[in-house]
Design goal:
The complex is a heterodimer of chains A (about 300) and B (about 375).
Chain A: H1 3-34, H2 41-59, H3 62-83, H4 93-115, E1 131-134, E2 138-141, H5 142-164, H6 166-176, H7 178-183, H8 188-211, H9 221-235, H10 240-268, H11 271-296
Helix pairs in contact in A: 1-5, 1-6, 1-8, 1-9, 1-10, 2-3, 2-4, 2-8, 2-9, 3-8, 5-6, 9-10, 9-11, 10-11
Chain B: H1 2-17, E1 24-30, H2 37-50, E2 57-63, H3 68-80, E3 86-88, H4 93-105, E4 109-112, H5 118-121, E5 129-131, H6 138-149, E6 154-160, H7 163-175, E7 179-186, H8 194-202, E8 207-210, H9 215-226, E9 233-236, H10 242-248, E10 256-259, H11 268-281, H12 287-305, H13 311-319, E11 334-335, E12 341-353, E13 356-369
Parallel strand pairs in B: 1-2, 1-3, 3-4, 4-5, 6-7, 6-8, 8-9, 9-10
Antiparallel strand pairs in B: 10-12, 11-12, 12-13
Chain lengths: ~300, ~375
């Protein structure tokens, strides 16, 4: 294996990690601030991809499409928060899981009703097609590099938002003691709506960015949602920093396991068995890591004790 | 006297047309919601189109949501409370494996419009099970044969890590004469192939074969094209179907794929099917729709020659349908001894036609192709 291939795979892992981060940042904030388990978060991923595909089809402009993938999920997020989610904050987690699971079904079937059962088309613009030559003779996809850069900017942006703004202080206070900030006269329901809409917009952005290189179809959000939950469990629930580290860990681990495990097993057993066992174990790697973290740090890497 | 003879005559006519006029209840279990529902909807629509002029067929449909347990529940309900005679419709091999044995053992017919797992063609074959589409390995075998004849010497092959994925690569290797550079199994449902594509780029392969049905294939083709890896891509028809091509876009142009059906196969039945389907549903038919249509037409043909009340006669009528009036949209069609199709499998190329991406036949890959498991089936 050449060093170039190794670095290319490392970049692939980091790109996958940033995509997971966009998903899990919203999930972890919503859980941390409102104490809500939101299974419907994957639906915003799907709504983002569909609205991007719709706008791209209408205008032919990818950047407008990306803008739409932020705005539509945020608007739908606000509506849903107002009408349904709000009633769930005081209920126990089982009720929240049931209600948000119902939302998944409603969103999926509504999307299928509007756009049909066949996958939609969404492609990256011509200027981002193809590869770029990085230092050290590394050929890497321009578009994937852009995803890494966007992810990086959003991570920095969220860091400033949480640590340097009034909203961030309110969010942190909300995580620590919901009763107290209500008593202090902060409009908590407005804060909840903002956090929920922000989470939905980030998930929608992830959906559109990924939809352009994958398939825009009903149900595309749920597999990502499962990994996003693994990320926030590893990172520690409620922690943005945890979500970032967790997402990058999972992204790199998953990619590297897919690359190296089959090669590793080929050294010690017959080829066809090695391929099968290697790829099976690679698909489990994220969950194995989660199990390990839970054994040694039950609250996650950056979770509160 | 005159009146009486008229009424006798009418009675006579009635007995002719209703000689075997017993109602046939068909249970259609397929995927109608969530991921993969495009396939189930096409099968259902193709089937409905085939039997729409047949008043004696009653269809009861159910949505399996691509979940084996729900498919099993639906089959039980259809057999026990709806009293269906025939069940059909299942898209996925894992669902078929859960449903088919129970259905045929309860003395009902199962006609598969899509899934053809090797077990049901071989050791677990059954006299009441008919496959109208293909045995799972078939399209991949044709792809292996095509790759050899196109002069490829060293293939990189990739499929999801589940039974049908392994069947697929086994099928390809059975007919491919060159060597295999690398064989990669991905997670079922995986949609990011950056790692695999990087491996392909770093390899010495001269061709890539992939079996990645549904959204997996869309993602793979787009990413493969975006990565600008300059290697020929070969796949089975599943990833180049009408519904999929729209989502893949120009990335699919020029790719060779293998199929037992194509909308430009020249025969009267196929022309009628393509035209009727378009006018009924306002979209181009897919291979799934053609399989649903053929399944419907086989039932119609069997009903004309036998009564569903007589299982043995009806089974014979199904088996002999290709010589008793059933015309497949694929042209040549007959059943092997394990009740799977013997048919030609073609090589197609993705082309642009009036601004729409579609497939064009370029050669016949395998002629009168049966399946590998005939000898393992003791019926």
């Amino acid at each position: 294996m050449s060093l170039q291939l190794f670095i290319e795979q490392l970049l692939n892992g980091i790109q996958f990690g940033f995509m997971l981060f966009l998903m899990s940042a919203g999930l972890t904030l919503i859980f941390g601030v409102m104490g809500l388990i939101n299974l419907a978060h994957g639906s915003f991923f799907m709504i983002g991809a569909f609205s991007a595909s719709f706008v791209a089809g209408l205008t032919g402009n990818f950047f407008l499409a990306i803008l739409a993938s932020l705005i539509f999920p945020a608007l739908i997020g606000i509506t849903v928060e107002f009408s349904i989610i709000r009633k769930l904050y005081e209920r126990d987690h089982l009720d929240q899981v049931l209600a948000t699971f119902a939302l998944i079904l409603i969103f999926s079937e509504a999307t299928r009703y509007i756009f049909g059962a066949f996958p939609l088309f969404l492609d990256i613009p011509n200027i981002l097609q193809g590869n770029i030559l990085l230092p050290g003779e590394i050929v890497y996809s321009k578009y994937r590099l852009i995803i890494i850069i966007i992810g990086l900017f959003i991570a920095i942006g969220l860091y400033f938002l949480i640590n340097r703004t009034l909203l961030g202080i309110q969010i942190k206070a909300g995580q620590n003691d919901r009763q107290m900030i209500r008593v202090l006269g902060i409009n908590i329901s407005r804060l909840y709506t903002i956090v929920f809409a922000m989470g939905a917009a980030l998930a929608g952005l992830a959906g559109a960015l990924i939809g352009a290189i994958q398939s825009v179809e009903v149900g595309m959000g749920e597999p990502v949602l499962i990994l996003a939950f693994v990320v926030i469990v590893i990172g520690g629930i409620g922690s943005i920093k945890g979500a970032l580290i967790g997402a990058l860990l999972i992204g790199v681990l998953d990619t590297m396991a897919r690359l190296f495990l089959p090669i590793f097993f080929e050294l010690i057993m017959e080829t066809s068995q090695a391929l099968s066992l290697g790829s099976s174990l690679a698909s489990m790697s994220a969950y194995l890591l989660m199990a390990l973290v839970l054994i040694f740090r039950p609250t996650g890497l950056f979770g509160k004790k | 006297m005159f009146k009486k003879s008229i009424s006798t005559f009418i009675l006579f006519l009635l007995t002719i047309s209703y000689a075997y006029g017993d109602k046939v209840k068909v249970g259609m279990i397929t995927t109608l919601s969530g991921g993969g529902s495009g396939l189930g909807i096409d099968i259902r629509d193709g089937f409905a189109l085939a039997v729409k002029d047949e008043p004696n067929i009653e269809i009861i449909s159910g949505d399996d949501q691509r979940k084996p347990d729900i498919a099993v529940q639906l089959a039980d309900k259809m057999i026990q409370s709806d009293k269906v005679d025939i069940i059909t419709g299942i898209v996925w091999s894992n669902l078929a494996m859960a449903v088919v044995p129970a259905v045929v053992n309860q003395g009902k017919f199962y006609l598969s419009p899509n899934a053809g797992p090797s077990l049901l063609a071989g050791k677990k074959c059954h006299k009441n099970y008919f496959n109208i589409a293909w045995q799972n390995d078939n399209l991949h075998e044709a792809a292996g044969g095509y790759a050899s004849s196109a002069g490829f010497k060293n293939s990189f092959i990739i499929a999801p890590n589940y039974p049908a994925g392994k069947d697929a690569l086994t099928g390809y290797k059975r007919y491919f004469k060159g060597s295999i550079e690398n064989e990669v199994y991905t997670k079922l449902g995986q949609t990011d192939y950056a790692a695999e594509i990087a491996k392909i780029r770093a390899s010495n392969a001269d061709s890539v074969y992939f079996f990645l049905p549904g959204g997996m294939g869309i993602a793979f083709i787009k990413q493969f094209s975006q990565a600008q890896v300059d290697l020929p891509l070969v796949g089975p028809a599943f990833s180049f179907d009408q519904g999929i091509l729209k989502a893949v876009g120009n990335a699919a142009l020029g790719v060779k794929n293998t199929s037992q059906w194509s909308k430009d196969i020249e025969n009267a039945q196929n022309k009628k099917f393509v035209k009727d389907f378009q006018s009924a549903y306002g979209r181009l038919p897919s291979l799934y729709a053609s399989q649903g249509y053929d399944t419907g037409k086989i039932i119609v043909s069997a009903m004309a020659n036998a009564s569903i009340k007589d299982m043995d006669a009806f089974r014979e009528a199904l088996k002999n349908a290709p010589s008793q009036g059933f015309k497949s949209t694929r042209g040549k069609f007959s059943f092997s001894s394990n009740h799977h199709p013997i048919q030609d499998i073609y090589v197609r190329e993705v082309v642009e036609e009036n601004g729409t991406l579609t497939n064009k036949l370029i050669s016949s890959g395998l002629v009168d192709h049966s399946n590998f498991y005939v000898d393992q089936c003791k019926m």
